[in-house]
Amino acid sequence: MERAVNILDKIGSLIPGYRGYAERDGRRNCDKQLRSILSSKLIECENTLVNRINEAITNSDKPLMRKIEVCRKLINTTQSKVNYAPYGESGFFSDQQIKEDELMKIYHFDLDMAEVVDEIKNIILENDIDVIMTKVSELDNVLSSRNQFIREHR
């Protein structure tokens, strides 16, 4: 007799990578996969800004071009930090294992990062570079908090 599929199983089947987060031994792969997805979204944002820089060059708008370039560099740096952030799982033979409640805190950081990246992706086409830079700084702060938390609990 097969067991009935509960709501969490249904939701989990809709979310790519959820199964790995649910199984402790697959968390490292899902953590890397999530950060890879976030990194790809940031690369898309950077490419959009490159197009905006080219438009500013075509229109001979050097001040706007410089402002967008500063924002592009900030996104590029943050994208690298996201891509190479430490894993949210301790190694199998590590002296200190990250506890379940600590993993949940890391997952909240991951969710916060995903939400901010989506906000950046949604506002990247708007003309207000200052808003974009504020959001990228917010992402960098969440990532720094996440990394600090992981370092403290390893």
Write the layout of secondary structure elements.
Elements: H1 7-14, H2 18-22, H3 27-58, H4 62-83, H5 100-123, H6 129-152
Helix pairs in contact: 3-4, 3-5, 4-6, 5-6
Summarize the structure.
The protein has 154 residues and is an all-alpha fold.
Textual characterization of the structure:
- There is one protein chain.
- The protein has helices spanning 7-14, 18-22, 27-58, 62-83, 100-123, 129-152.
- It is mainly alpha-helical and 154 residues long.
- The longest helix is centred in the first third of the chain and has 32 residues, at 27-58.
- The protein is elongated.
- The relative contact order is 0.12.
Which percent range describes the beta-strand content?
under 5%
Order of helices and strands: HHHHHH
Beta strand count: 0
Give the helix tally.
6
Structural class: mainly alpha
Distance between the termini: 42 Å
Relevant terms:
mainly alpha; 0% strand; elongated
